[in-house]
Amino acid sequence: MSSPVSIRNFSIIAHIDHGKSTLADRMLERAGAVSEREMRAQVLDTMDLERERGITIKAQAVRLEHKAPDGERFVLNLIDTPGHVDFSYEVSRSLAACEGAVLLVDAAQGVEAQTLANAYLAIEAGLEVIPVINKIDLPAADPERVSEELASILGIDADEVIRVSAKTGEGIDELLNRIVRDVPPPTTDGGDLRALVFDSYYDSYRGVVCYVRVVDGTLAPGDSLLFSATAERHTASEVGFLTPLAVPVARLGPGEVGYLITGVKEIDRIRVGDTISHPGSARIQPLPGYAEPRPMVYSGLFPSDGEDFERLREALEKLRLNDASLVFEPETSRALGFGFRCGFLGLLHMEIVRERLEREYNLDLVATSPSVAYHVTTTDGSSFEIRSPQDLPDRGRIQFLEEPYVRAMIIAPSEYTGTIMELVQARRGTMDHMQYLSPERVELIYNLPLAEVVFDFFDQLKSRTRGYASLDYEPGEYRASDLVKVDVLLNGQSVDAFSAITHQDKAYQYGKQMVERLRRLIPRQLFDVPIQAAIGSRVIARETVKARRKDVIAKCYGGDVSRKRKLLERQKEGKRRMKMVGSVEVPQEAFISALRIDSET
Amino acid sequence: MQPDSVELAEAAAVWSGAYVHVPFCARVCPYCDFNVVAGRDDLQHRYESAVLAEIESEPAWRSLDSVAFGGGTPSRIPARSLAAIVLAIRQRFGLVEGAEVSLEANPEDWSEPLAESLIAGGFNRVSFGAQSFDPAVLVGLGRLHDPADIDNGVKSARQAGFGSVSLDLIFGTPGESMASWQRSVERALELEPDHLSLYALTVERGTALSRAIKGGAPAPDEDDQADKYETAQELLAAARYVRYEVSNFARAGHACRYNLLTWAQGEYLGFGPGAHGHRSASRYRNIHRLDAYLEAVEAGTRPEQGRDQLSSWEREQERLILGLRRAAGAVAGCAGEALLESEWGRRLLGAGVLGSFGGRIVVDKPLLGDDVARAVLALAPIDC
Ligand SMILES: Nc1nc2c(ncn2[C@@H]2O[C@H](COP(=O)(O)OP(=O)(O)OP(=O)(O)O)[C@@H](O)[C@H]2O)c(=O)[nH]1
Ligand code: SF4
Ligand SMILES: [Mg+2]
Predict the structure, then answer these.
(1) pTM for this structure?
(2) What is the number of domains present in chain A?
(3) By the 8 A CB rule, do A252 and A225 touch?
């Protein structure tokens, strides 16, 4: 157990890819926490997907030791956080366990949207923010300009900004010394145990492992513990810290960050944000927790092979053990059969979940168009939320519909202001305000329908600003909108998987795009197949897949009957991967491709 | 008898045949995925000996109704080799009275003396690989003859005494216009052949054509081919040719026996590299590669590469699939009844692809025949 005065707890926060995990690597190296043999780039990114994509998805806590120039020894608890907007709740959680935050900015990119968003989170949480410019080794680095930007945002002096290279290690010692100097040591009221559960994960051998920050008192194996939110009692079986390997210790004292194992196997029984105390003590005042992360987008996930439904359920349940933000409920589609309506934090989260399901659980999935949650008020005055176009009541029964808006922050070179305004207007956005971060960089704040942001808004923004703009957003309010449901009909029969709720002005575009894609994706059949997009009974777009005219092997050479048979057998297998929609055969591929959001606009 | 008559179609089931594969070609046409060799004419002598040896070692069988030489290009090996093989077959198995002895020939190889030697060697039917009468299309197909070679070939074959002369045409080559195709059919009809085979150009895997298309060359178009098929069908019907199978048309009495036998699930022997045979519910094939085939035969072994022994259900499916290629259709039987009751079969009936009457099933839209075949293969096995 370390004395609180020698402890420093901090998170590393930044825009995506500005070098948080690489900086953590260098700090671990300096502290000798990881042997050379174990060292690899972004050592804290342990999930396969994190390593492949080169991004951090889940925050990671790690403890290291630092010797100050005067020889004094400190314990540093570092939390590496993800930069992507989908996972910003991980940042909030991490900040609650710290007294300081290292705010990292790429010396070539400058301040970007998540730099600001995360800086505000840290300031609001009352943390000491240490401004750092990273990647000063890059030829394109412009530390002068970036220091100015940072200084003006944080209201500090430009020469307070530390310059480092997480690649070469330059400036790391100075940074560590600054952390020790400026980040306040944790304080305690000296009373009995209060600890915050700031994260948890599931380990198949050990059950639920909680990341805890002890605020007051001590936490030791054998302690009986009361979890205030769930009012459950569990016994601590092991406590320790991560180096990044788990090292058990006899106790965790005030100000320390570590892990706790209680033998609980069900992740739902531990609430992240909960306060732990000793039962019977007078410490009933819980620590401030967090709001549960709310899903932003919903999509139906269906197994290509109906037989896999149960396997999909098991896989989702397992993923949820480590990802409390993933929500799902059974859904039935006429076209796709049995599956689940799943809620995600954003499209990246959705993509990651889907990839993990397919890869780690060997499932072949069809995902329906992502949708946001709408609020419906019916003519009889009742209101409810729908997460799927299928759940929308008949038009005659709807009094009005509301859709979620977000507050979006865009940072870009000022020359792109006009371009961005155009894009945002086309997406039904309204400007809240704009402000110059420097003469060259501007911050634009908009209110935008979430549905317009989650689809390819970010890609469009990037391509129209040559990659220079960055985007962050946070949930806003629900507002009434002119929304309609567009149905897609094959041979007169509506295909639920292709239905979407869109703004009235976008309905035609959606309908036209879907029927055109489907015309290319649906093979010719024995009869003409009309493909229509309709709002209610009004057809807004139409295409036809002409009847197939030729499907026969011309010649059966030399009496090679076996070969012909084998060829036909293979083709027949292809047929098996078709779904019958009424009398129309639709290849599995068509569902995947037609519903792909990024293919074209 | 009319080529599409039910009696003829069914009679062929008990015929016996032999197929001789001649793999030699002047060069490999870009669309061809047959078992061929180009530039290996030096092996022709060994080839002849091997085929003769294979025939010798084949156990005695019934007299044959049909002997077919296919390829490759049978007309590329000397007439005396062809005659020697026919003789060996005749001596080993015997030929029935009026048996069909047929070969495929390329027009550029043909000559009056060759025609006469072949007649002397026992041939009575020839099928010319005419493909088109449009020089540009012939070039596109990589063919080496010009339209005049076809005219000369047909004339000299007739003069020499061939009782049945057939022309093969290919339609739907990218770049071939409808007018060009129509002209090819009319030119073919002017020659008054007894039989015509019309094949849609098909892109087979691994061919030069398929590589060219992957590299951006135009591909054959389904609608264009369907249009051309229909146009040809009208022209041929007006000239009194009867369609008796998807791709085959003939005048009365000139349906190809070897074809009829194949679609009636009849039995035949196969000789030569990659040749196929069908006997006692078993389909077998010879070693594909010419050199390996030659070595096997020369070593005194049977050059068989593999065989598929068919279960009774598989035979029943096959009977229906093959039979339905014919205009005469097939007896419904156990698989046919199941087909008509299946969901897929009902869809085909509804779309007018299948028809059924008097215990028989016919495919009314021959261009969609493979969908019917797949539907038959998709049937769950029945104990018939
Ligand atoms: N040249 C140079 N490259 C760096 C430096 N620091 C990080 N990088 C590179 O920048 C990229 C992103 O680094 P990460 O450490 O994964 O960034 P991150 O901020 O953790 O990213 P997320 O977790 O996805 O938000 C990697 O390719 C690093 O190698 C640096 O100081 N100099
Ligand atoms: S001549 Fe016939 S067998 Fe020979 S390569 Fe050409 S198409 Fe193939
Ligand atoms: Mg990272």
Answers:
(1) 0.73
(2) 5
(3) no
Mean pLDDT for A296-321 is 90
The candidate with the shortest Cα–Cα distance to A108, out of A25, A22, A18, A174, is A18
Which range of residues forms the domain containing residue A129? 4-182
* A546 lies in the same domain as A580: yes
Estimate to the nearest angstrom the gap between the alpha carbon of A40 and the chain centroid: 25
Largest CA distance in chain A: 94
What tens digit of pLDDT does each residue of A209-261 get? 999 999 999 999 999 999 988 889 999 999 999 988 889 999 999 999 999 99
- Yes or no: say if B167 and B128 are a contact pair by the CB < 8 Å rule: yes
Å from CA of B38 to ligand 2 middle = 9
Residue nearest to atom 8 of ligand 2 (CA): B32
User: Which of B21, B29, B203 for a ligand 2 pocket mutation test, highest count of atoms within 8 Å of Cβ?
Assistant: B29
Domain boundary among A481, A497, A523: A481
Burial of A315 (0-12, 13-18, 19+ CB in 10 A): buried
Which of B197, B222, B248, B313 is most worth mutating to test chain A (most A CB atoms within 10 A of its CB)?
B222
Q: Shortest CA distance to A96 belongs to which of A50, A44, A55, A61? A: A61
Classify A140 as helix, strand or coil: coil
> Is A500 a domain residue?
no
Residues A347 and A389 in one domain: no
**A30 and A172 co-located in one domain:** yes
pLDDT of residue A535: 95
With a 6 Å cutoff on the Cβ, whether B32 touches ligand 2 is yes
A358 and A388 share one domain: no
B275 contact residues in A (CB cutoff 8 A): 558
Shortest distance, CA A508 to any CA of chain B (angstroms): 31
Span A374-403, mean pLDDT?
94
For A148-164, how does the pLDDT look when each residue is reduced to its tens digit (9 = 90+)? 989 988 888 988 999 99
ipTM: 0.87
User: How far is Cα of residue B355 from the mean position of the Cα atoms in its chain?
Assistant: 25
pLDDT at A283 (0 to 100) = 62
What is the number of CB-based contacts under 8 A between chain A and chain B?
A: 95
d(CA A430, CA A374): 20
Query: In ligand 1, which atom is closest to the CA atom of A53?
Result: 24
**Please, is B281 exposed, middle or buried when counting C-beta atoms within 10 Å of its C-beta (0-12, 13-18, 19+)?**
middle
